[in-house]
Write a structure and sequence with these properties.
single chain; 238 residues; alpha/beta; six-stranded parallel sheet; five-stranded mixed sheet; 8 helices; elongated
């Protein structure tokens, strides 16, 4: 498979190595200093572009890739509120393809399935209050993390006593989501169900970005053979 990389930071370099190890070809690498390469024949030859950039750049990158007939796999977060409707329309009505996930880790996909199942159980036990905390490296600009938002939405969907999620709230009708930024932490997500009697905690703690990078390459392999707006739940049937 021919892959283009959009964004060549730590994640992009790790994705490159994993893709090569899996027998794929990197035909184009686009970073902030060579945006003109979106117009190159090498980029247009890609089956899929894997995009990990900043929230403010992601949607524009999708448009540039789509204009060249290239499908996109993206792990960029923070763009959904402003451009979500446009992306959904492009994928459902205009024949574009985007595989988007807030987190490509296989472990997080499993953790998300556990989160949904546990929330359904805990809906029956109102004596437990639930809250979430996410920790990431100091370079992460958005908060809470896209993964935390996804997990929070899953909880709210399954627990009737929570209307929505919010940061820094003491109102019990909302799921409280806290964020911490320190060091070079790849990502820790913790969900706590607390009662007077006991505490139930589930945590996903990423040791490195390798799991995210592998998941992104697996997503690219999946995306090559599929179309539309895709996500982890399409690729992993839990």
């Amino acid at each position: 498979m021919k892959i283009a990389l959009i964004g060549y930071g730590k994640m992009g370099k790790m994705i490159e190595q994993i893709a090569i190890d899996r027998g794929h070809e990197i035909v184009s690498i686009i970073d902030i200093n060579n945006q003109q390469d979106f117009d190159s024949p090498e980029f247009a030859s890609a089956d899929v572009a894997i995009e990990f950039t900043a929230p403010q750049a992601a949607y524009g990158n999708y448009l540039k890739a789509w204009s060249k007939g290239v499908k996109v796999v993206s792990g960029s977060t923070g763009w959904m509120t402003e451009h979500g409707d446009e992306v959904r329309k492009a994928c459902s009505e205009e024949g574009k393809t985007l595989f988007w996930a807030s987190n490509f880790s296989i472990g997080v996909a499993i953790f998300s399935a556990v989160n949904r199942y546990l929330a359904k159980i805990m809906n029956q036990f109102p004596q437990y209050d639930v809250e979430m905390e996410e920790t990431h490296h100091v370079h992460k600009l958005d908060h809470p993390s896209g993964t935390a938002i996804t997990l929070a939405e899953e909880i709210v969907e399954n627990i009737d006593r929570k209307e929505a999620w919010k940061e820094d709230t003491t109102d019990k009708k909302y799921l409280r989501v806290d964020h911490i930024r320190r060091g070079e932490v790849p990502g820790i997500h913790t969900i706590r169900y607390d009662s007077d009697a006991d505490l139930i905690t589930i945590t996903h703690d990423a040791h490195s970005r390798k799991g995210f990078a592998l998941g992104a390459v697996l997503a690219a392999e999946y995306t090559k053979e599929h179309q539309g707006l895709l996500t982890i739940s399409d690729m992993f049937k839990f």
